[in-house]
Amino acid sequence: MSDDKLLDAIIAQTKLTKKQTDKQQKIVETAIKLFAEKGYANTSTSEIAKAAMVAEGTIFRHYGTKDNLLLSVILPFIKDSIPTMAEEVFTEIMSKNVGCFEDFLRALLKNRLHFINENREIFQIVVKELLYNDELRKELLPFFADNILHRITKVINTYKDRGELIDIPSHTIQRMIFTLIGGYFVSRFVLQLDNCDIDEEAEIENLIRFIMDGLRKQ
Amino acid sequence: MSDDKLLDAIIAQTKLTKKQTDKQQKIVETAIKLFAEKGYANTSTSEIAKAAMVAEGTIFRHYGTKDNLLLSVILPFIKDSIPTMAEEVFTEIMSKNVGCFEDFLRALLKNRLHFINENREIFQIVVKELLYNDELRKELLPFFADNILHRITKVINTYKDRGELIDIPSHTIQRMIFTLIGGYFVSRFVLQLDNCDIDEEAEIENLIRFIMDGLRKQ
DNA sequence: ATAATAAGTGAGTAATTACTCACTTATTAT
DNA sequence: ATAATAAGTGAGTAATTACTCACTTATTAT
């Protein structure tokens, strides 16, 4: 509870006041780069200061603690982008294509792919710290669940009612889609396993085909 | 090259000589526990020493560096268990059930589930460090590829020849299976997202059904 | 123009880090 | 039994860590 207040305060400050100094911006920029590259625990504040060409004290003037810097990097991204995006995505996709589930899936996948492509580094940080940092995981996972998963479940239910989807629990379906798409993004953007010989469009279509119809012939 | 020699030496030493001291065993045990819990970077050697009730010097007597301790924990597990297991799994599974691909998948999944269940902590360490530690990733990923993936590709090709599987590139199929099963294991054993309301047997069957036939009704 | 506030600095600090080394104690080979 | 070797110790060390604080410089409000 008190934690949430603090975090909300950080976000409010970062968003509302808006007047980030040049140095402040440089610090966050550099922190994102280094955290993504080497992980939070392997990046020292002195390293960030040097790379951002700023006195180490400046970091602590603005962010107080190293932990706070991480949160200032991650949380605005999460708490701002995700829900807004989610809202946008789901309403837009659902209204535009009243088409089949496959079309919904394709739109969702392309949208997310584009989004993560634009935010590779923060995605890398979030994934790494989600595994490494217990506190952060406990903070973020429920947030994901509340904002993303229940929306997907809704959509799945809609299509299930239309008789387009098989009859297993919605949250199981949602979980498998999430695992597959999430796994695809992680292997591509975090592990950077490049599948160089196949183009992206084809890869997406393969993924969708797999999700829709599985591996069995016919 | 020189790295590989060193690592092989570590493994040879740990395996062949076999005469691990009580203290040595305690150190490795404790390191596994702490690395799994808090991650390598967040665990200090003094912490390990204290928890293992050993002088800090003893750790360095045996392992030389902290990095080496990590390798001594991970590599014997990887380089020993994985190939042996893989061999075992693939020959056994393939000879016993000359059945359909679904049966192969079921056997593989259950086998791996059992294996990881028995080695939760090391699995946690490997996954975490695979994302966090560039060096280790570069060392391990090719090893995985050589030992596991090409075997799966072989099996997939067999079943493709029998006309049981759809006609997309084998390595794409293999990658999607790996992503899905890997993602399932990670979400379960590392993120520890518990799906408390469904029993394991049913969950596995859902997973297999999804892989085989996808989400589309009929 | 001036006062008040915020931004920025960098030397300094206590704590912690991985690691060493001279030494003692246990184990093994003879 | 004795010598040789390996295992174990813990005080010590240089480097690094996150963070502080007295101070200077820039920005804003009046």
UniProtKB/TrEMBL annotation, chains A, B:
Keyword terms, alphabetized: DNA-binding, Repressor
Q: Which residues form a coiled coil?
A: none
- Transmembrane stretches, start-end: none
Cite the Gene3D superfamilies for this sequence.
Answer: Tetracycline Repressor, domain 2 (1.10.357.10)
Q: Is-annotated flag, keyword Cell membrane?
A: no
**PROSITE patterns per UniProt:** HTH_TETR_2 (PS50977)
Query: Which residues does UniProt assign to DNA binding?
Result: 44-63
* Matching SUPFAM superfamilies: Homeodomain-like, Tetracyclin repressor-like, C-terminal domain
Origin: domain of life: Bacteria
* Domain named HTH tetR-type: residues: 21-81
Q: Provide the species name.
A: Peribacillus huizhouensis
Q: What is this protein called?
A: AcrR family transcriptional regulator
Q: Which Pfam families match?
A: TetR_N
Note the InterPro entries from the entry: Homeodomain-like_sf, HTH-type_Tx_Regulator, HTH_TetR, Tet_transcr_reg_TetR-rel_C_sf
